[in-house]
Design goal:
The protein is α/β, with parallel strands linked by helices and 422 residues long. The chain is 46% helix and 9% strand. It is built from 21 helices and 9 strands. The strands form 2 sheets. It has a 7-stranded mixed β-sheet, with helices on both faces. Strands 1-2 form a two-stranded antiparallel sheet. Strand 8, helix 16 and strand 9 form a beta-alpha-beta unit. Helix 9 packs across helix 21, helix 17 packs antiparallel against helix 21 and helix 19 packs across helix 21. It is globular, with a radius of gyration of 22 Å. The protein starts with 17 loop residues before the first helix and ends in a 23-residue tail after the last helix. Bound molecules: tryptophanyl-5'AMP (TYM). Tryptophanyl-5'AMP (TYM) binds next to strand 5, helix 7 and strand 8. Tryptophanyl-5'AMP binds next to strand 5, helix 7 and strand 8.
Length: 422
């Protein structure tokens, strides 16, 4: 349980104190792969590579030393944008670091960049889309420039049996989804690490020099069996946090919308930012879209857990119909005892993405009181998600002709960069 703490200015930050935020050595982190004892103690485990169990988000705020998105921040966003996005209203985005500072600076006329990314390990699923939908919204509302990093190197290094042929295929496929989100081509640049490393290498080297192996072990759980590519990777994901300051030739703040699994990267980057003369990267963290099976997040490395943007209507229907729910084993028991909406992925998909606040409240009530059967919720989900994915599929087709508008050099993905001699 999270204890009630003082928050006099209602910024959400006094609750945890800056010493905790910077105290990366004092916070406990899972090893990679997570040790079983860790999972059984907390019943869940969150790392940038894996989410296991049923996540207690209040507990995670405590563990990671982040700050809840509170009324003060919500009011501030409302004051600036005139509205509150449903993902904040329904608490899908629930935590942050320095979002209040980003908003305060924005009010003074200081613009920020957005930064987010994707590790191309497979096709894009519903979970990935959530931070991107929100990033697109923020880009529109704040007219912000966006750096979108594709960590093909990360996926090669971190995944057993990976090869660059398949990772590059997914890089292309994932970029179609990213473009399909509708990001502004004039204000968005996609950086593909192995292709565009020259834009990151100097900054990442400067970051790397300031992070010890001991810190990397404490934060990421590396050990003696970790390959040295993995150990050297975190500064490369940190580098785009500082790139905007180089592009703009002045200290430029960055806001990172992502699920909270990416937080360890920002923690090490924040720790050294000011020493390097850059603003600390700010974040807004989302929860996870749960997997179709029981426990854990929707994950492309476990296709049985995911609804992919490339799935056809028949596959979507089949997957949703087979989804784990919080329902009772029989209709009679469901009518008598009601279902458990809290643990039901279908309820949460509808809550996060498709139902209005009122519809979701009614659904919750009807489910838990036995008035609603799982089949009815699944049908609602099928009827919403098929057209949603169809729309993305149409936009993905159009995106095939737009890739050069988003690359850093305006060239296509396979632009020839071979070394030649006269
Ligand atoms: P990746 O490819 O694992 O995930 C891409 C984005 O999707 C989020 N995410 C989810 N959000 C909600 N529900 C889920 N089930 C779910 N699964 C994944 C991730 O948090 C992420 O925002 N290392 C990164 C790539 C990266 C990046 C970044 C991500 C590079 N720079 C900056 C965010 C911000 C990765 O492999 O993400």
């Amino acid at each position: 349980m999270v204890q009630e703490k003082k928050d006099p200015d209602m910024t959400g930050r006094e609750e945890y104190g800056s010493s905790k935020e910077e105290g990366i050595h004092s916070v406990e982190f899972a090893t990679h792969p997570p040790a079983p004892s860790k999972i059984s103690r907390d019943d869940f485990n969150v790392t940038p590579w894996e989410v296991v169990g049923s996540v207690d988000y209040s507990n995670l705020i405590e563990k990671f030393g982040t700050f809840p998105i509170n009324e003060f921040i919500i009011d501030k966003i409302k004051k600036i944008t005139g509205e509150i996005h449903p993902f904040i209203k329904n608490k899908f985005f629930f935590s942050h670091r320095d979002l209040d500072l980003i908003l305060k600076e924005y009010e003074k006329g200081n613009r920020f960049y957005l930064y987010t990314g994707r590790g191309p390990s497979g096709q894009v699923h519903l979970g990935h889309l959530m931070p991107w939908i929100f990033t697109k919204y923020l880009q529109d509302k704040f007219d912000a420039k966006l750096i979108f990093q594709i960590t093909d190197d990360e996926k090669f290094l971190f995944k057993e049996n990976s090869n660059f042929e398949s990772i590059h295929k997914f890089t292309y496929e994932n970029i179609l989804d990213i473009i399909a989100m509708g990001f502004n081509p004039k204000r968005t640049r996609i950086i593909i690490n192995t292709r565009d490393i020259k834009y990151l290498y100097r900054i990442s080297t400067e970051i790397a020099k300031r992070i010890t192996f001991s810190t990397a072990k404490a934060v990421f759980g590396f050990d003696n069996s970790t390959n040295i590519g993995m150990i050297g990777f975190p500064p490369i994901q940190g580098a785009p946090c500082f790139l905007p300051s180089l592009i703009e030739k002045k200290p430029t703040p960055v806001l990172i919308p992502a699920a909270i699994d990416q937080d360890p990267y920002w923690r090490v980057t924040r720790d050294i930012a000011e020493k390097m003369g850059y603003p600390k990267p700010a974040q807004i963290h989302s929860k996870f879209i749960p997997g179709l099976t029981s426990g854990g997040k929707m994950s492309s490395s476990r296709p049985d857990t995911a609804l992919f943007t490339v799935n056809n209507p028949e596959t979507i229907e089949k997957k949703v119909k087979n989804t784990f729910t919080g329902g009772q084993p029989t209709i009679t028991l469901q009518r008598k005892l009601g279902g458990n909406a809290d643990i039901c992925p279908v309820f949460w998909y509808l809550n996060y993405l498709f139902d209005t606040e009122k519809e979701s409240q009614e659904r919750y009530h009807d489910c838990t009181s036995g008035n609603l059967l799982c089949g009815e919720c699944k049908n609602d989900m099928i009827n919403k998600v098929i057209p949603f994915m169809k729309d993305i599929q149409i936009k993905r087709e159009k995106a095939k002709d737009m890739i050069c508008k988003f690359t850093v050099d305006g060239k296509d993905l396979n632009a020839d960069s071979a070394i030649e001699f006269d």
